[in-house]
Amino acid sequence: MKLGMVGLGRMGGNMTERLRRAGHEVETYARTAPDRTADSLVELATKLEQPRVVWLMIPAGDPTEHAFQNLLPLLEDGDIIVDGGNSYFRDSVRRAAKAKEKGVYFVDAGVSGGIWGLTEGYCLMVGGEEDAFRRIEPALQSLATDDGYAHVGPAGAGHFVKMVHNGIEYGLMQAYAEGFDLLRGVDDFDLDLRQVAALWQHGSVVRSWLLELLERAFEQDPRLDSIRGYVEDSGEGRWTVHEAIEAAVPVPAIALALFARFSSRQDESFAAKVNAALRNQFGGHAVQAASQSGDGAR
Asked: Could you say which of 43, 102, 169, 215 is catalytic?
């Protein structure tokens, strides 16, 4: 099939390459990519025959909203917009309703697979109308690993499932982080962390692809000395916790994993200073003097 891809970053570029290798014809547009085939969304639309399929693979929020608002007037009845980014599912529901007013289908496709998707295949969680899903299914089959795509529900369902998927990922990553921190923190055994990560991939109930990637990281840098312990969040963990609060569904592991990422960005925790000050005040416990570099003086 023929489609347009907007965004040629780490995900969009690799997905375009995988589609082309499978025989699909992909026209591309990205503002900063020298190898794009179109110079604007207008030109991209003209390069596609009706019914058109345009796949957005750009950051969530303003970039996706801007592209959607500028693309929609260029499309006609029966055309399809696919948002493959990590958009907030409620935004996807709104965009689907707006597109439907013009007779345009909107499909939200949560995509997992990262930089390995080009060779290993992706997992795609697709929301939207059944007719639109069936029309883009040849592309989904080419992008996905075996049994790695599904129509999970109406508009918004794909991004909702991907949001929860990423929330779970936060929890899994934090559990591995804490476990290996403990393995390293007890001096009695001088454990080879790469060896443990490799061992647990065989028959263990905690084996996973994340553990394989961790083994690779330890192989490259056994003590992770080259990496600062600063962990960003994409926003999906926050949305997961927010939706859980709204639905009164307890997600303590995911919430704590999100807060652990916040903690990783502090040079020195003010909360820890409060704790130290309180112990000193009520029990006379010793406190350590702050360095003269001004840490925590913000």
From this structure: 169
